[in-house]
Known about the structure:
Blueprint: E1 2-5, E2 10-15, E3 22-23, E4 28-34, E5 37-42, E6 47-52, E7 59-60, E8 65-69
Antiparallel strand pairs: 1-8, 2-4, 2-7, 3-6, 4-5, 6-8
Amino acid sequence: MSDIIAPMGGKVIEVKVNVGDTVSEGDEVVILEAMKMELPVAAEASGTVKEVKCKKGDTVEAEGVLIVLE
Length: 70
Protein backbone atom coordinates (compact mmCIF):
# COMPACT_ATOMS: atom_id res chain seq x y z
CA MET A 1 0.00 0.00 0.00
CA SER A 2 1.04 3.57 -0.60
CA ASP A 3 -0.22 6.84 0.85
CA ILE A 4 -0.47 10.09 -1.10
CA ILE A 5 0.22 12.93 1.33
CA ALA A 6 -0.27 16.69 1.26
CA PRO A 7 3.05 18.44 0.59
CA MET A 8 1.79 21.48 2.53
CA GLY A 9 -1.29 22.55 4.41
CA GLY A 10 -4.17 23.98 2.42
CA LYS A 11 -7.76 23.65 1.26
CA VAL A 12 -8.94 20.84 -1.02
CA ILE A 13 -10.51 22.41 -4.10
CA GLU A 14 -10.86 19.24 -6.21
CA VAL A 15 -10.58 15.47 -5.75
CA LYS A 16 -9.96 13.84 -9.14
CA VAL A 17 -10.26 10.16 -8.16
CA ASN A 18 -12.78 7.82 -6.55
CA VAL A 19 -12.43 4.53 -4.69
CA GLY A 20 -11.68 1.77 -7.20
CA ASP A 21 -10.01 4.04 -9.76
CA THR A 22 -6.64 2.98 -11.16
CA VAL A 23 -3.93 5.65 -11.12
CA SER A 24 -0.48 5.75 -12.66
CA GLU A 25 2.62 7.39 -11.24
CA GLY A 26 2.41 11.12 -11.98
CA ASP A 27 -1.40 11.29 -12.30
CA GLU A 28 -2.98 14.29 -10.56
CA VAL A 29 -5.29 13.05 -7.81
CA VAL A 30 -6.06 16.13 -5.69
CA ILE A 31 -5.81 19.90 -6.22
CA LEU A 32 -5.01 21.96 -3.11
CA GLU A 33 -5.18 25.72 -2.66
CA ALA A 34 -2.24 26.92 -0.60
CA MET A 35 -0.86 30.45 -0.29
CA LYS A 36 -3.41 31.64 -2.92
CA MET A 37 -2.01 29.17 -5.48
CA GLU A 38 -3.39 25.94 -6.90
CA LEU A 39 -1.12 23.03 -6.05
CA PRO A 40 -1.68 19.74 -7.92
CA VAL A 41 -0.86 16.63 -5.89
CA ALA A 42 0.27 13.68 -8.00
CA ALA A 43 0.50 9.96 -7.28
CA GLU A 44 4.06 8.86 -6.51
CA ALA A 45 3.24 5.25 -7.39
CA SER A 46 0.77 3.35 -9.55
CA GLY A 47 -2.11 1.47 -7.96
CA THR A 48 -5.81 1.30 -7.22
CA VAL A 49 -7.50 3.86 -4.97
CA LYS A 50 -8.45 2.04 -1.76
CA GLU A 51 -9.55 5.06 0.29
CA VAL A 52 -10.14 8.79 -0.26
CA LYS A 53 -9.52 10.60 3.03
CA CYS A 54 -10.49 14.12 1.92
CA LYS A 55 -13.28 15.89 0.08
CA LYS A 56 -13.78 19.23 -1.61
CA GLY A 57 -13.70 22.04 0.95
CA ASP A 58 -11.64 20.16 3.56
CA THR A 59 -8.65 21.86 5.14
CA VAL A 60 -5.65 19.54 5.35
CA GLU A 61 -2.41 19.70 7.29
CA ALA A 62 1.05 19.27 5.77
CA GLU A 63 1.95 15.56 5.62
CA GLY A 64 -1.71 14.59 6.05
CA VAL A 65 -2.83 11.48 4.14
CA LEU A 66 -5.14 12.37 1.23
CA ILE A 67 -5.43 9.10 -0.71
CA VAL A 68 -4.56 5.47 0.11
CA LEU A 69 -3.47 3.25 -2.80
CA GLU A 70 -3.14 -0.52 -2.92
